[in-house]
Automatic annotation (TrEMBL):
Transmembrane segments: none annotated. This is NADP-dependent 3-hydroxy acid dehydrogenase YdfG. It comes from the Bacteria. InterPro entries: NAD(P)-bd_dom_sf, SDR_fam. It comes from Streptomyces violarus. The lineage of its organism: Bacteria, Bacillati, Actinomycetota, Actinomycetes, Kitasatosporales.
Amino acid sequence: MTTFALIGAGPGLGLATARRFGAAGHSVALIARNTQRLDDLTAELARDGIEARGFAADVLDIESLTAALYAAGTSLGTVEILQYSPVPRADFMKPVLDTGADDLHTPLAFSVKGPVAAVNAVLPGMRDLGRGTVLFVNGSSAVRPNPKVAGTSVAFAAESAYARMLHDTLAPQNIHVAQLIVPGAIRPDAEHSSPDALARRLYDIHTERDGFRHYSEPLPD
């Protein structure tokens, strides 16, 4: 059995994707800072018959993130699918003219250093398997910079560039890297951007392995 590792586990999109990949037969590694949340999510997945385990780590702490992914692969099975979708902090959302150089340090660590560390931690296992998938989930500012949220606009653009380079470089090794852009809010009542709809879409991206960038719905004009 191989493992679906979710960085940014939460009760919305995270739980829905964990259910979808778990239902397909993968073990589930949940990675987040909050240990109580991890315990609650693990218990909920267990009620669905899904083998899941929580690993506490902070994406801003490279050592803890790397250790969590190593522990996940060792205890649950090689990580075949990695999803990077932690929710950015509110203080990343300053307007562009209120954003100084120091304000970009943490967003870039969150959206670039974290993904680089995560991918480097799981890539050897994917290569050993001969297959793998890396899924990035971002908001619309990744493709359409928004001066009201300068930190995420800059950091998501950098994350997108890194993900695209991975897509082009790893495709010959049967490792598929893709990005899903969610233009609006993730809401239970949204037709295309509900947690369950996005989870289905992410699973389809994993199985169909077609192209780099995908949209849950068209960007508004």
